[in-house]
């Protein structure tokens, strides 16, 4: 049984193969969050507190350098975890308990194989502006294969992942169509149509969107996700969770 509980923003509790994993911890209240000379505006807090989420076996962190993916309370929570799997850059900035997981490298956690996979947090050529980001694939005997995209805007990246794995059963897609002046009109994460196309490329029969609400820099949300998946003929695959809601898969 795989259980995914949506906490808010990019944060979800994934119970998988006997392990408890938390994606990109964000537990701060709404407000303005500086990022260099700019700021991001958070419009809603999480459905669960860090205490209500409880202990996990690992945090799987797409990146540490943006406050909408790791805020102050989320960082405090993550540093108490026994393990954070993330980028080499996050390892350099945070230190323990971060373990850098390179693309296509795997880590064994209690019978769960967690593989780092590419993510591109913006258009081609923007890596020097947006920084290093990663995604993850979870595999375990008798369990569905789960892809967690992190902040990825590239369908070419999705195609590379589809080529590497025999199957992706569940796709957890960061899908708010994020935009900031940093890269002009380009998307920093998948928009709704891109999320539907990613589901088709992966042939994922279950899709759980994250990071599509609660921040002003998201240009798309629940309504556009429903429309895009309906137009693509994939409406039956989409699981749009309310904050605090969970879904389980056999």
From TrEMBL:
Domain Metallo-beta-lactamase residue range list: 19-212
Protein keywords: Hydrolase
InterPro entries attached to this UniProt entry: Metallo-B-lactamas, RibonucZ/Hydroxyglut_hydro, UPF0173_UPF0282_UlaG_hydrolase
Annotated Pfam families: Lactamase_B_2 (PF12706)
Family matches, as SUPFAM superfamilies: Metallo-hydrolase/oxidoreductase
UniProt cross-references to PANTHER family, sorted A to Z: L-ASCORBATE-6-PHOSPHATE LACTONASE ULAG-RELATED, UPF0173 METAL-DEPENDENT HYDROLASE MJ1163-RELATED
Protein name: MBL fold metallo-hydrolase
């Amino acid at each position: 049984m795989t259980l995914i509980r949506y906490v808010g923003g990019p944060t979800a509790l994934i119970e998988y193969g006997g392990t408890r994993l938390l994606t990109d911890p964000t537990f701060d209240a709404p407000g303005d969050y500086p990022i260099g000379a700019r700021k991001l505006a958070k419009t809603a807090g999480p459905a669960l507190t860090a205490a209500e989420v409880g202990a996990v076996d690992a945090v799987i962190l797409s990146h540490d350098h943006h406050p909408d993916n790791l805020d102050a309370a989320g960082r405090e929570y993550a540093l108490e975890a026994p393990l954070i799997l993330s980028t080499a850059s996050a390892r350099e900035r945070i230190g323990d308990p971060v373990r850098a997981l390179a693309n296509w490298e795997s880590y064994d956690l209690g019978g769960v194989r967690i593989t780092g996979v590419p993510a591109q947090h913006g258009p081609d050529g923007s890596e020097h502006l947006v920084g290093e980001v990663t995604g993850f694939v979870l595999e375990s005997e008798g369990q569905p294969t789960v892809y967690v995209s992190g902040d990825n805007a590239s369908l070419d990246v999705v195609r590379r992942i589809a080529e590497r794995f025999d199957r992706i059963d569940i796709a957890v897609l960061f899908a708010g169509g994020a935009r900031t002046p940093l890269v002009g009109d380009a998307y920093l994460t998948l928009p709704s149509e891109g999320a539907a196309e990613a589901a088709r490329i992966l042939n994922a029969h279950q899709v759980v969107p994250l990071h599509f609400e609660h921040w002003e820099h998201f240009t798309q949300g629940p309504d556009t996700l429903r429309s895009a998946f309906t137009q693509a003929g994939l409406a039956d695959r989409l699981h749009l969770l309310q904050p605090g809601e969970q879904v389980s898969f056999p």
